[in-house]
Amino acid sequence: MPEPTASPGDDKRLWHAQAGDMLDDNYNMPGIVLCALGVVAMACTLTAAGYGYPGWTRLGAIATALLWSLGVGALMIEHRRQQMIELRYGRQGHAPGGLRPVHYSAARRPERLSRPR
After folding, report:
1. Per-domain boundaries in the chain
2. 9 near 111, Cβ under 8 Å?
3. How many CB atoms lie within 10 A of CB 85?
4. Would you place residue 82 in the very low, low, confident or very high pLDDT band (cuts 50, 70, 90)?
5. Is the Membrane keyword given for this protein (predicted)?
6. Which residues have a Cβ under 8 Å from the Cβ of 4 and sit 6 or more positions away?
7. Burial grade of 67 (CB within 10 A; 0-12, 13-18, 19 or more)
8. Could you tell me which of 69, 82, 92, 80 has the C-alpha nearest to residue 24?
9. Helices in 1-117 by DSSP H: which ranges?
10. pLDDT digits over 20-78, tens only?
11. pLDDT value at position 5?
């Protein structure tokens, strides 16, 4: 069985999904940080509401909604980018509507080698 090459631009590189691939990708960090800041903003909003500051409560609610929207949007964009990388290397993954099981291995299947790139 051929060994995978180390250069990411090589078309002959074999790709195999590993547990934690998405966590190892640092491009997720902006989305995770924005969502965490949204949680902090929600805590501040609830504190302001509890002490009876309606102006700060409205401002905090807007900041919370904005931070969560931006965070989830950044995570969705990163998920789409990762999906395109997986498809580029021939992984069909767990696509919605897929009825057959997907078997992963390090060996390339013959029909994938004959597909034009």
Report:
1. 26-90
2. no
3. 14
4. confident
5. yes
6. 13, 14, 15, 16, 106
7. buried
8. 82
9. 21-24, 29-50, 54-88, 110-113
10. 666 666 888 999 999 999 999 999 999 999 999 999 999 999 999 999 999 999 999 98
11. 47
Quote the CA–CA distance of 82 and 25 in Å, as a whole number: 9
| Whole-model pTM over 0.85 | no
Report phi then psi at 76, rounded to 5. Answer: -70, -40
Residue 1: pLDDT band by 50, 70, 90 thresholds?
Answer: very low
* Distance between first and last Cα of the chain: 22
Q: What are the tokens at 14?
A: 């074999």
The letter for the amino acid at 11 is: D
